[in-house]
Amino acid sequence: MGLPAGDTQLVQLMDEALADAARRAGPWLVCRPGCTQCCHGAFAINALDAERLKAGMRELHAADPQKAEAIEQRAQAWIAEFGQEFPGDAATGTLGTTEEEQERFEEFANDAPCPALDPVSGLCDVYAWRPMTCRVFGPPVRMGTGEALGCCELCFVGASEEEIAACEMQVPHELEEKLVEDAGQPGETVVAYAVRKQANR
Length: 201
Known about the structure:
Low-confidence stretches: none
Strand order of the largest sheet: 1-2
Number of domains: 1
C-alpha cells in the first residue's frame, strides 16, 4: 500500500502527546531504555503500522545493514517457532478474524520477545518506526471512546485514580483510523511478519 503522507503527522502528534503525558506523570511513569516489559508477547498491528515498519527496514538496510539483517533473522526465527500455531494465515501473517482465531490469539506467543528487540542492549532496533501500540504503552490511555483508562502495570504504582486520570495521554484515534481506512487494507498482522526479509526489497 505504501506509507501515506499523513503518517508523518500521526507520528508527530503521538510523540507530542507522549511527551506531554510524560511531563505530567513525572516519576509515576517509570518507562526507561532497557525496560522490556512491553516488548514481550504478540500483539496486533494494523496495515499502517506494518507499512511504517517496512519503510523503516528499508532505511535501516541503507544505514546499518548488519542491524537490519539481525532483525530479519530474529523475525524468521520467530515465525519458524510460532508460525504453525499462528491464528490466521501463516504464509502472509494476516491475523484471522473469526471468534475462534481471536480467542487463540489471546494466548498466542505471550512470552516471546519482539524480533525488533535487541537482546543485548534491551533497546528497540526500529524505535523510530515502531507501531502505535508501542507508542501508547506506559501512560494512561483509552483504546477507544468511553473505554476505561489503562496503563503499564509497572507505572503509577500507588497512584490514585485521580492522579492517573490527570496524566491521560490524548491519542489521535480518528486520524489513525482515517489513514488505515484510506489505505483500504483493514487486515492486521504482527511485528515479525512486517520486519521479515522482503523478497522485493
